[in-house]
Amino acid sequence: MRNLRQKSKKKATDKGHKIPAGKYNFTVQRRFPPDGIPLEKWERMCSFWNTEEWHKKSEAGKSNRKNDLCIHTGGSIGFDEHRANMENKEGKKVGYKKVFFQTHATKQCKKRVQDGEINENDFKNLEFVTKRAKNSYVAYTQQLEKMYPEETKCDDLAIGRV
């Protein structure tokens, strides 16, 4: 969506409209839909974006993206919803460790694990979106191994009430 808003802004500024850097003017931009977007649909989108509610969400999102304490790769879906989606897909209960990995590991790292190049306990080669996320994942996994050394190959939910 951001790319569409940027394309609309460029069209408007190319036609002589002044829109400050880092800002949008949806009252103006509503007349300049990006290629491939019907005018009527674009106008509805601009009306939505031209609300105080959207502006607050946009600012909160911008602030969150700058804050490395909340970076994850799960989008706007909450942790519990991710877990439920994963359980539906796999047809079984999914543990916190697996959900954390799926929402905090980099896309490249998840692909390497999926391809069997590395595994989820190969701490040296795992890549996460932040150092804090990696440290949390490693610490949790190591704590599970200390508490349940004979069961470390299973999912954390199978270990009991972890």
Which range does the strand content fall in? Answer: under 5%
Tell me the number of structural domains: 2
Shape, per Cα inertia axes: elongated
Helical residues, percent: 40-55%
Residue windows where pLDDT falls under 50 for at least 5 positions: none
Report the major sheet: none
- What is the alpha-carbon Rg in Å? 22 Å
Distance between the termini: 40 Å
The helix/strand series, from N terminus to C terminus, equals HHHHHHHH
Number of helices: 8
Number of strand elements:
0
Helix-strand makeup class:
mainly alpha
Average pLDDT metric: 85
Structural commentary:
The chain is 55% helix and 0% strand. It has 162 residues and is mainly α. It has two domains: 2-66, no CATH class; 79-159, no CATH class. The chain is elongated and about 70 Å long.
List the helices and strands and how they pair.
Layout lengths: L1 H13 L11 H4 L9 H11 L2 H15 L12 H12 L5 H9 L2 H8 L16 H17 L15
